[in-house]
């Protein structure tokens, strides 16, 4: 396993990010407000999922990075909530 840094760039709000390795994930979030970065351990030849929940004022831009590489960017809509999932 190697270590990589998961990080978020956001001006305001709260967030929870979870990297999912297997179908039966432990449910522990890897990056939680107020921390803006966390070290995670991954296997280079394994596919992972990312689930994110962000609560922030409407129009707040955010970017999520893995080892400095942009993997997701978005903007919080009028509900004040942005949530979703992606493959990393």
Description:
The protein is mainly β. It has one domain (2-87). The chain has no helices and eight strands. The chain has strands at 2-10, 14-20, 31-32, 37-42, 49-55, 61-66, 69-75, 81-87. The strands form two sheets. It has a four-stranded antiparallel sheet, with no helix packed on it. Strands 3-2-5-8 form a four-stranded antiparallel sheet, with no helix packed on it. The radius of gyration is 13 Å and the shape is globular.
Keywords:
88 residues, mainly beta, 8 strands, globular
Structural class: mainly beta
Total number of strands:
8
**How far apart are the termini?**
15 Å
Shape: globular
Summarize the biggest pleated sheet: 4 strands, antiparallel
Strand content: over 45%
Q: Low-confidence spans: pLDDT under 50, at least 5 residues?
A: none
Order of helices and strands: EEEEEEEE
Total helical segments:
0
Radius of gyration: 13 Å
Residue share in helices? under 10%
- Give the overall average pLDDT: 94
Strand order of the largest sheet: 4-1-6-7
Describe, in short, the structure shown.
The chain is an all-beta fold and 88 residues long. The chain has no helices and eight strands.
Write the layout of secondary structure elements.
Elements: E1 2-10, E2 14-20, E3 31-32, E4 37-42, E5 49-55, E6 61-66, E7 69-75, E8 81-87
Antiparallel strand pairs: 1-4, 1-6, 2-3, 2-5, 5-8, 6-7
């Amino acid at each position: 396993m190697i270590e990589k840094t998961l990080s978020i760039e956001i001006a305001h709000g709260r967030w929870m990010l979870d990297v999912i390795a297997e179908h039966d994930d432990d449910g522990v979030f890897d990056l939680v407000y107020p921390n803006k970065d966390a070290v995670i351990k991954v296997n280079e030849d394994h596919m992972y999922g990312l689930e994110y929940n962000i609560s922030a004022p409407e129009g707040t831009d955010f970017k999520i990075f893995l080892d400095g590489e942009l993997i997701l960017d978005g903007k919080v809509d009028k509900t004040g909530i942005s949530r979703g999932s992606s493959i990393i």
